[in-house]
Amino acid sequence: MRRRPRLFVTVLLALLVVLAGCSGAGDSAAGGNDAGGEATNLDQSTPAASSGGDGGSADEAAQSGDAESASSTQFAARRELIRTGEVRLLVDDFASAERNLTAAVEARGGYVSDTSQQVRGRENETWTTGTVVLRVPKENFSALLDDVRAEGEVQQSKTATEDVTEQVVDLEARLENLRAERDRLRTLYESANETEDVLRVGQELSETQEEIERTEARLRALEGRIAYSTLTVELSEPRPEYEQIRRAAWYDTSAVTAFLDSVDGVIVVLRAAFVGAAYAAPYVLVFGLPLVGAALFVRRRRWLRRLR
């Protein structure tokens, strides 16, 4: 009777162990299935995410390339050019040519910026030369150049074009940075509490403002030269022609002409001597007579000594 309870307990414990093992195996299998599902889902989502990331990078690269291409195209389309020219003209009348050039440049929307004039002469003949500087809108430069060349005989003509696009872009970018720096300093100045900070920020703000004004002045000057082209015109009237008279050699002169020329020479010499004597007479009277009197006085004293 004692063995049966022990056997019953042993069998019951064995059944509990078996049930516990089956339950743990089921949980492990379920967990393995869940993990496998998650791994499968992760593996399936990874290529999609990878492909999405590659697509995003490609789109960003394409957009960046398009932006750079657009910027390059805009820079190439924007060309800031300074055009200048010089023309040397031979004109019949300086004043008339100057009036015509003034009317021509004003008709083209420009103006005369500088003029100079100089009158030259030789004997009884004179001629005028000078320079007229014309400023005209850049789109009318070629038309004005044709008007100037038609005003007289062209002796020299040349034009030049300077590309200042890079300078303009640099100045504009510098202005933008300086203005941003000025705004930042103003914010710091308003929020500063310490006296030292206020003075330091105020000094930096003043220097930045001065730099902005200088840069703006340079940009305005450059833009003015771009908007209005410069044409310098040198005007000159023709010089009078002179005939040089060739004198005959002395041995080609006739005897009578030579004698008369000699008589004239003698007369000139006598006249010069007479005029010289007239100039010298006052000096002789003032300085010569006292000297003569002194010499006579000395000679008389010597003569008296010899007599004694």
From TrEMBL:
<protein>
    <recommendedName>
        <fullName>DUF4349 domain-containing protein</fullName>
    </recommendedName>
</protein>
<dbReference type="InterPro" id="IPR025645">
    <property type="entry name" value="DUF4349"/>
</dbReference>
<keyword id="KW-0472">Membrane</keyword>
<feature type="domain" description="DUF4349">
    <location>
        <begin position="79"/>
        <end position="293"/>
    </location>
</feature>
<feature type="compositionally biased region" description="Low complexity">
    <location>
        <begin position="29"/>
        <end position="39"/>
    </location>
</feature>
<dbReference type="Pfam" id="PF14257">
    <property type="entry name" value="DUF4349"/>
</dbReference>
<feature type="coiled-coil region">
    <location>
        <begin position="161"/>
        <end position="225"/>
    </location>
</feature>
<feature type="transmembrane region" description="Helical">
    <location>
        <begin position="277"/>
        <end position="298"/>
    </location>
</feature>
<feature type="region of interest" description="Disordered">
    <location>
        <begin position="29"/>
        <end position="73"/>
    </location>
</feature>
<keyword id="KW-0175">Coiled coil</keyword>
<feature type="compositionally biased region" description="Low complexity">
    <location>
        <begin position="58"/>
        <end position="72"/>
    </location>
</feature>
<keyword id="KW-1133">Transmembrane helix</keyword>
<keyword id="KW-0812">Transmembrane</keyword>
